[in-house]
Amino acid sequence: MAAFDRNQENQSAEVTFILLGFSEYPELQMPLFLVFLTIYIVTVLGNLGMIMIIKINPKLHTPMYFFLSHLSLVDFCYSTVVTPKLLENLVVEDRTISFTGCIMQFFFACIFVVTETFMLAKLCSLLVGASYSWGIVCSLTLTYFLLKLSFKGNNIINNFVCEHAAIISVSCSDPYMSQKIILISDTFNEISSLVIILLSSVSIFITVMKMPSTGGRHKAFSTCVSHLTAITIFHGTILFLYCVPNSKSSWLMVKVASVFYTVVIPMLNPLIYSLRNKDIVIDDSQERRDKTSLLILNFQLGLFNKKG
């Protein structure tokens, strides 16, 4: 254990990573910066706005909106772990990140992506705590095996984020165990979450069809469509990454897909849920009584082009 700690101390001081990002396209650096900056601003305002609206509106203090507030929190944190460094690397020449910084980025990104995987599996407030806990367990396990690998000097990572496959590709030691652990973890997380989604969808469909009210069925199906849209985008992107062959020619596809699920999806979730859930719109009388509610509602209206 002491030798392991000394090894990590030496690596922390001596090892650096260079995130290539999209540096092979110098003419696109500024346009990409503006696009990603806009997406990040919308992501931050959209997700924090969703959290604040749910918090201040008593009508939204229900299990479903409790879940949505935590989904927004995860999206905000996940995007904030990745996007600021991506933006920085688009406008500076020095794209280095320290060993500690790279490992910490992977650690926190892993927590939030695993947490979101299981949050999206079932609209249930009771599973929110379990999703966070499992995300932390998975991230600690994967990070531990990454720290057992050896690295030397400057290491070029052909990505804009410290992603697991990119990190182990520059390791000086055998990454077999780390690769096996993440394969088992990812396979378990994807299969178990998709099974939960399938069973939940069948159960919800049966319950909705038993509703006597046509309006109630329409509202329930509207919520389900929002949820299934978010699930399809999130899991579809991850499954696409599974299918991409591990070769140099595929790195561009990996980077594009990584942009989608680390930068774009956190922006889309509040759009998807708010546009299809009319309960998010606060009534006019409450707006007049509560200036704070009015301010936040106007922000949401402007951000998502919602009708008052």
UniProtKB/TrEMBL annotation:
* Family annotation (InterPro entries): GPCR_Rhodpsn_7TM, Olfact_rcpt
**Membrane listed as a keyword:** yes
Where mainly found? membrane
| Alphabetical list of PROSITE patterns matching this protein | G_PROTEIN_RECEP_F1_2
Supply one GO CC term from the record.
membrane
Span-the-membrane segments of this chain are: 32-53, 65-84, 96-114, 126-147, 191-208, 220-244, 250-268
Which Pfam families does the entry mention?
Answer: 7tm_4
Which protein, by its recorded name, is this?
Olfactory receptor 5d13-like
